[in-house]
Amino acid sequence: MKLHRLAVSGFGPYAVREEVDFDLLGADGLFLLHGDTGAGKTTLLDAVAFALFGKVPGARGDVKRLRCDYADRDTPTYVELELTVRGRRFRIKRSPEYERPKKRGDGATRQQAQVSLTWVSGWTGEGHSRIDDVAREVEGLLGMTAEQFFQVVLLPQGEFARFLRAETAEREKLLEKLFGTERFLDVEKWFRERRAERRREVEQLGRARHDLALRVAEVALEEPPAGGGDQEWLSSLLKRLDEDERDAEQVSAEASDRRALAERDWQEARARQERVRRVRDARRHLDRYAEVEPSLRAWVAERDAARQAAVVVPAQERAVKLARELDAAVAQERAAASAVSALGYEGVDLRGDGERFREEAGGLTGLAAEAERQRADQRRIAQLDRDVATTSQGLATLVAQLDEVPHRLSAARSAVEESAEAAARLPQVAGLAGAAAELPRVERAFREADEARRDAVDAQQAAREKLLRIRRDRLDGMAVELAGQLRAGHGCPVCGSAEHPSPARPVPDAVTALDEDRAADEDQRALDRRQRAERESHRLGERLALLREQLGDRPPAELDREHRSVAARAEQLESRQAALAELEAEVRRALDRRGALERELAEAGAQRAQLVEAVEERGARLEEARGEFPDVVTRRAHLGDLADAVTGLAARRAAVAEHEERLADQRLEVARLASLAGFADVADALAAARPASAVAELETRIREVENTRTAAESTLAELPDTDPDTEVDVAGAEERFRVASDGATEAATALTNARTRAARAADLAGQLRDAWLRLEPVEAEFAELDALTDVINGSGQNTKSMTLRTYVLAARLEEVAVAAGARLERMSQGRYRFVHSVEAGPRGTRGGLGLDVMDDYSGQQRPAKTLSGGESFLASLSLALGLADVVAAGAVLDTLFIDEGFGTLDAETLELVMTTLDELRAGGRVVGLVSHVEELRQRIPTRLRVRKAREGSSLELTA
After folding, report:
1. Taking the CA of residue 156 as centre, how many other CA atoms within 13 Å lie in the half-sphere pointing to its CB?
2. CA angle (175, 178, 179) in 5-degree steps
3. CA pair distance 145, 567, nearest whole angstrom
4. Nearest-CA neighbor of 848 among 175, 183, 152?
5. In this predicted structure, what is the pLDDT of residue 483?
6. Which of 71, 329, 789, 795 could form a disulfide with 195 if both were Cys (CB 3.0 to 4.6 A apart)?
């Protein structure tokens, strides 16, 4: 990957468009991003990362606020990067999602994230404009994810310093993110889930085996075996059940034979008893026939007479019905005559007069409809008079209300304008009020921070003087320290001689290397505290100056009063706008209502005039037609009623004559039918008549007596040898059959139970054998899987207590340690190199991810935490470069960035580091340094200057 050009606009601290030409800067293979703290050095690295991956590294990426706060509202926010990867040169332009002011009116609108990838050379395909497509293309070309890029290309020294001092768990997270070992974690999880699944299967099969053994024992009516039983127990149980079944079959056959013999004896006793009963009943029935024979002859005579009179009764009933109908017709004729007299009729031609009255009433039908219309029009005129009065009153009230509208509208509009002006001023006033409230707190914090800064400077200067004094004292006593390392027969590290005639003698209170390391650590900690205090004091000083510039000479109390007043008016904006809108709507409704009322008055007046004219014209015709009646409708109703009454009377008189004739004919028919039936007159026939139910009852009584006599005679003829006095013991035979039947039933039940138990036990035994066969291989497979899962997850036979994922990370960390150790050994002039450790940590901490430093001066291996500040920087840089070599294996990295950390190095160490960085330029690689160290600025001349946004500070890019 080789960078060519970077452009930023409205991004981070850069308010306007700025460009960086990496081809110019990297012509010599090494360039420097130099500037004061906060000048925007790291922002350029963030811009490169954002252009490629759409996010920035570290905690800055969590904020997701990339637009410059000081950019003009029309300045867009974007990053444009042109680079070459694997021979393909392309340009990426990416904009983040941010809020920008609206082009019209107040407020803000959301600008959506956008990206475009355009090929410049080396590739003829189409570009991309979708975020997902660009992400896939970039990761495919670079061969690494965003996290790997942040670690490999943007070498963050602070993070690797923390990596050196990190515990195993934290170091494991970083390595896992870099090397992408999530798949091994998935393998561990798969084995654990597979083991749990197989364990559940084994437990399920074990429960099934145990349940089957319990069921077999339950069927065999035995106690369940311990441990689920075995083949010997099962075979003995089935053999016993077969023997029980054979014994039950023999007992059941013997009981069945006894029941059959007892049943035959019982059936024969029942048959003899039935024959005796039938003979006794036949003799009793013949005795009763002799007693009722006289009554039987009377029942026959009564039945025959009733059958002959049956034809006379319906005819007589018809005559009675006709007589009742005649009486009803006579009553109706009398009522109709009374109604006609009540209406004043005195004529004799009923039908002719009825037709004449009906024709006269029909002639008045049209005038009756006009009379109804006349009354409706008169009611409508009265209603119109009331409506006109009501509408006139409402119109007068509405006109009075509209006279007050202009003043109310003017007052409401003035109130809305006042609130709108207050709402527009509110952000500015609120900002000033907030600044006034914050000013005392910032002043107090600045005083405290400045005091802390002075204390930190004094403490750091004291720690530095102590370190320099200890180093001077150690150099003065270095002969003693070297003499302590001399061994007989070994060469002197200074002169090389194997003889040591007069080594220096130890002196009291001599300074050792451990004292120097402690002093260096104290100096580093004091320097860190000083830098933190200076940064905090500088930040608060800038904030204090900004607040004072904003407030000017206005007192805080005045700003607070103004803020409350403006806020109160601004809060009323929506309610006042709603009130104005409601008032305007109310005015529109009132105007519409006034127009409607005026139209209603005009329409009602015109309609009333038309109705009055029509009523007067129609009234003359109706007065002439009503005669002596109150109105035409009443006269027409009287004529209709009279026509109906006269016609009805004529119909009633004709009906009476017809009923009299039919009644006389029916009475003659009744007398004829009685004579034909053999009766002297109608009265005798009616006396002999009986209801159908009575005749049926006589028939049944006669038939029962005859059938009983016939059946008795037939029974005696059928059983001539049966003595009715014979006694048969049926109860005893039945009791003997019941006892035998119960015994046979019990034996059959016992046989059925024995067969069921044997069959059920045989079936369950087959299932139990199958369960044994299924469980055996599953248990063996689970035991193997269980042991393997323990090994993969760092337990069981795993003597190193390392999980699979940790093992893979340990192997990659070992590669990193080898690559980084070579660089550290060179930069430390052969004193230090990294050592990878697989030993488990304290308190059961998993091993495999230990990283210590071998000190060749002392020959001892020690933790990286014991390195001094400068040594930690060298170790961090070496580790970062080593990790870049390992992670980027197979990827082409033509550009590297190294961020900060050079301020902790002395001149000699800095020279070693620069030599190492010069070596990185081999093969056309470009190395960018990010630092505020002045010595680096003097080493690399200025080529390009980029001005930051608001503070006016600048960022120098040198090469």
Report:
1. 16
2. 85
3. 50
4. 175
5. 65
6. 789
* 949 confidence band (pLDDT: 50, 70, 90): very low
Closest CA to 49 of 40, 38, 58: 58
- State yes or no: pLDDT of 494 exceeds 60: no
Q: What is the mean pLDDT of the chain?
A: 76
Which two structure tokens, joined as six digits, stand for 503? Answer: 């080594």
**b/e string for 435-464 if b means 16 or more Cβ within 10 A?**
bbeebeebeebbeebbebbeebeebbeebb
Cα separation, 84 vs 230, whole angstroms: 76
Q: DSSP state, 866?
A: G
Residue found under tokens 């016939």: 710
Confidence at residue 404, expressed as pLDDT on a 0 to 100 scale: 74
Give the integer Cα–Cα distance in Å for 171 and 850. Answer: 9
DSSP letter (8 states) at residue 227: G
> How many other CB atoms are there within 10 angstroms of residue 29's CB atom?
17
User: Which contiguous run of DSSP H or E holds residue 89?
Assistant: strand 88-95
Rounded to whole angstroms, the Cα distance separating 425 from 433 reads 12
HEC letters along 324-377 = HHHHHHHHHHHHHHHHHHHCCCCCCCHHHHHHHHHHHHHHCHHHHHHHHHHHHH
pLDDT of 91 strictly over 90: yes
pLDDT of residue 79: 94
| Cα within 13 Å of Cα(275), Cβ side | 15
Contact of 101 with 74, CB cutoff 8 Å: no
pLDDT of residue 78: 92
In this prediction, residue 7 has a pLDDT band, given cuts at 50, 70 and 90, of: very high
More confident residue, 668 or 173: 668
Structure tokens at 13: 């601290």
pLDDT the model gives residue 950: 42
Alpha-carbon distance of 104 to 492, in angstroms, equals 85
Relative to beta strand 926-931, strand 30-34 is parallel
Strands 154-156 and 895-899: parallel
Torsion sign (Cα): 48, 49, 50, 51: positive
Q: How many CB atoms lie within 10 A of CB 575?
A: 12
The answer to whether residues 368 and 636 touch, using CB atoms and an 8 Å cutoff, is yes
* 758-779 mean pLDDT: 75
With a pLDDT cut of 70, the percent of the chain lying above it is: 78
Residue 948 has pLDDT above 60, yes or no: no
Label residues 717-754 b or e (16+ Cβ within 10 Å = b). Answer: eeeeebeeeeebebeebbebbeebbebbeebbebbeeb
- For strand 954-958 and strand 942-947, is the pairing parallel, antiparallel, or unpaired? antiparallel
Longest CA span, the chain? 188
pLDDT band at 214 (very low <50, low <70, confident <90, very high): confident
- Give the separation between CA 159 and CA 851, rounded to whole angstroms: 15
Q: Is the pLDDT of residue 548 over 80?
A: no
Residue of 476, 472, 459, 474 whose CA lies nearest to 522 = 459
Nearest-5° Cα angle at 92, 88 to 95:
170
Laid out side by side, the sheet with 860-863 consists of 832-837, 850-855, 860-863
Nearest to 860 by CA among 490, 517, 521: 517
Look at 30-34, 724-728, 921-925 and tell me which has the smallest mean pLDDT: 921-925
Radius of gyration over alpha carbons of the chain, in Å?
63
Average pLDDT over residues 841-853: 64
Q: What is the DSSP string of 418-469?
A: HHHHHHHHHHHHHHHHHHHHHHHHHHHHHHHHHHHHHHHHHHHHHHHHHHHH
Domain boundaries, the chain: 181-229+730-793, 405-571
Give the Cα separation of 920 and 914 in Å (integer).
10
Checking DSSP bridges between strand 88-95 and strand 78-85, what pairing results, if any?
antiparallel
CA gap 522, 516 in Å, rounded: 10
